[in-house]
Design brief:
5-stranded antiparallel β-sheet, 5-stranded mixed β-sheet, 59% helix, 28 helices
């Protein structure tokens, strides 16, 4: 099955199941309140959420396989269809379209469909050319290689018999040590060795995203499976862009929605991370699907379907990214506001119950299958709370007191609504001042902070004071300016439908524009802005342009159209190079040429002395995509030669061929008595977009990995 057919199959099966679920909620007497486009996209989204969660649970339990997932899909679809049949539902969905805002009432409806069709063709070209990022030593390669492991062995945590055969006294020499109390070593970057039980490997990160890649990988054949997994970020980017369009369409009309859709799709960050296999575009899709459906539900909470869809979408974002925990206060405040405003109603459970269950699931997953990663990031805070127990107890007492106070003085609080205008003025002015300060003043009032990279042993600059300025490298100055003013206008016009979208997006923007915790290499550092920050600035710009156009004054309309052309032109101009460049092209066949020289079921030991060297970079795909056991001699001085010699003899007696992979500047073979026979070499050459700290990357740099393959034997 080719990679593109895999993507179509995933989309088609998800749509069918989502449609069957959607039909449970709407009848002739209770029609769907929306458009056919919204009904179709809601079905696709709900189907993806359902299938993804089922696959995720299977992988957690160690039961993942395409056959098992297919049987669950078929069984659930049959039950849903049977229920529809028994209740006599017709095959046609009753649609009661809502009144959608229009800027140009004279335009026929088919213009919107034509524009979306043209966009789809362009989006497939822009988003559907994935980087061939299969190498280790970086987050993107970790996800792809882990997806292959999940597809092949059916589980997230790895029980590695090869690792279990290595005595613990050899760990300091053969594994990389790290500052992590739960996993003091890793065998390959981001594959932590917990040691309980022996041979257990816990992959880094949260794992809904690589599980979806495993679905794509498993549906393909050995060659197309990797390509299908690499196409998944493009699918999420396409769905994320369309969800953003539907969100803007609801609040400002489809013409403004198309403007936002064009701006997002032309943006270099969207294009790049649609091809780059990390979680950013999936997070974007889940967030904006949640914003879109939550806005509809908050307008009419009795529409249970939209509450369920919003709860599932926002809830599953907590299974993708650990930093989503920062937005929990916003959702908690939403619950408090609804309770204070209306009292708690049963229909609120349709949103908050699935959201709460998925947040709890994410915490369970962290403790169960991602402990080293979770405690590495939150361990300090947890230790602080444990040593200062009065803090959580005090916070709990304060929370209870706040809720009791809200219940007691709810009526008085409702009277505060008369100060809404003054409060919004403060928010708008505060945001605009903050934005202008970060754009025009902060970059020139501060200097870069340097920190020591433990791997490269060099001082790395951190440009937090330039974060918004650097976002302008991809949005253009006019994009930043229109975004700031447009977001201010959105705040001024805030309502029930847009409040949560603005609150969460602004919170994430405040966090990551103030201080971005990421590898400072451009363009990699910008990935934090893809889910919410960059889309918010684009939505703000499009909203401002649409608002100016709707004033129906000739000079404002002309200004709006001129600004729109410059705005979109700026995105396209700054995307030059990002559209044409595909990183690591040709690496897959070159990796095959390397493995053609190796015997199956063999053991590879690299001599690379670099902190992150070829044993990590090409050793990771050799381990997870090609099935070889891979080690790197990390520290010869810590090597127990007698124990290592005994282990080598054991492997040889078990029938494994042992290869010593040597790179220039690496260590010499440490054990005497072994015969070394050179059997071949490799020379992998490809290209990548440059990584630098100081400017928007433009140059394409050559990458080369060379080595010699030596077989080890002993009589």
């Amino acid at each position: 099955m080719t990679a593109w057919i895999v993507i179509l199959l995933i989309s088609g099966t998800a749509f069918l199941q989502g449609w069957l679920i959607l039909r449970q909620f709407f009848t002739e007497q209770r029609p769907f309140t929306g458009t056919h486009l919204e009904a179709g996209f809601a079905s696709l989204t709900l189907g993806l959420l359902t299938m993804g969660w089922l696959a995720f649970v299977l992988a957690e339990l160690g039961w993942f396989s395409i056959l098992t997932l297919a049987l669950l899909w078929a069984g659930l679809s049959f039950l849903l269809a049977l229920r529809l049949y028994r209740h006599g539902f017709s095959g046609r969905l009753a649609i009661s379209p809502t009144q959608v805002k229009r800027l140009f009432a004279s335009l026929p409806d088919w213009v919107e469909w034509l524009a979306l069709g043209l966009w789809l063709v362009a989006a497939v070209y822009l988003f559907g050319r994935p980087h061939q990022f299969i190498i280790g030593g970086a987050d993107a390669g970790v996800y792809v290689n882990l997806s292959a492991e999940i597809a092949e062995n059916g589980r997230i945590t790895i029980q590695d018999d090869f690792l279990a055969s290595i005595p613990a006294n050899l760990y300091p020499a053969l594994l990389r040590s790290q500052k992590n109390d739960i996993a003091p070593y890793y065998i390959l970057p981001a594959f932590f060795v917990t040691g309980k039980p022996a041979g257990e490997i816990t992959p880094q990160f949260y794992h809904l995203y690589p599980v979806w890649q495993a679905v794509a990988y498993g549906l393909g054949n050995p060659n197309s499976g990797i390509q299908a997994a690499l196409l998944m970020p493009g699918l999420w980017a396409l769905l994320g862009a369309l969800t953003l369009y539907l969100t803007v369409r609801r609040m400002a009309g489809w013409e403004t929605g198309l403007l936002a859709l064009a701006g997002l799709s032309l943006n270099a960050l969207q294009i790049w991370f649609a091809r780059y296999p990390t979680t950013e575009t999936m997070t974007q899709f889940l967030l904006w699907a949640g914003f879109w459906s939550l806005g509809i539900w908050l307008k009419s909470p009795k529409d249970r379907f939209w509450g369920l869809l919003a709860g599932l979408a926002l809830g599953q974002s907590f299974l993708v990214r650990i930093d989503m925990l920062f937005v929990l206060p916003v959702l908690g405040l939403l619950g408090i506001w609804l309770w204070v405003h209306d009292g708690w109603k049963r229909e609120y459970n349709w949103f908050f119950l699935p959201l709460l269950l998925l947040v709890l699931h994410s915490l369970l997953h962290a403790l169960w299958q991602s402990r080293p990663y979770f405690f590495d990031l939150f361990g300090f805070a947890l230790r602080l709370l444990r040593n200062n127990w009065i803090i959580p107890i005090g916070a709990g007492i304060a929370s209870i007191a706040l809720l009791l106070g809200l219940a007691r003085f709810r009526t008085h609080l409702m009277r505060m609504a008369r100060f809404q205008r003054q409060f919004l003025i403060i928010l708008v002015v505060g945001f605009v001042v903050w934005g202008l300060y970060n754009w025009l003043a902060r970059p020139y009032l501060h200097e870069a902070v340097f920190w020591n990279d433990p791997y490269s042993q060099t001082a790395i600059p951190q440009f937090n004071h330039e974060n918004l300025l650097r976002l302008g490298w991809y949005l253009s100055p006019i994009g930043i300016g229109l975004g700031i003013v447009g977001i201010g206008l959105l705040i001024w016009h805030v309502n029930r439908e847009t409040a949560v979208m603005l609150s969460i997006s602004l919170l994430i923007s405040l966090i990551y524009i103030t201080n971005i915790h990421a590898n400072p290499h451009q363009i990699y550092a910008m990935r934090r802005y893809v889910p919410a920050v960059m889309p918010l600035f684009i939505v703000g710009g499009a909203y401002l342009l649409g608002w100016l156009l709707a004033r129906q004054k000739i000079w404002l309309s002309g200004l709006s159209l001129a600004l729109a052309l410059v705005w979109l032109g700026g995105f396209g101009w700054l995307a030059r190079g990002f559209i044409s460049q595909v990183d690591y092209q040709g690496i897959l066949p070159q990796l095959d040429q390397l493995t053609d020289q190796l015997a199956p079921d063999s053991i590879l030991i690299f001599n690379d002395s670099s902190p992150i060297g070829q044993g990590d970079i090409i050793g990771t795909p050799l381990r997870f995509l090609k099935g070889y056991d891979v080690l790197t001699l990390r520290d010869p001085e810590a090597l127990d030669q007698e124990a290592f010699d005994e282990l080598l003899l054991q492997w040889q007696a078990q029938g494994h061929r042992i290869y010593w992979i040597t790179v220039q500047g690496g260590y010499n073979w440490p054990i005497p008595g072994w015969t070394q026979e050179v059997i071949g070499s490799y020379d992998i050459q490809t290209s990548v977009l440059e990584g630098n700290y100081y400017q928007r990357p433009t140059a394409v740099t050559a990458v080369q990995w060379q080595g010699q393959i030596t077989e080890l034997t002993i009589e």
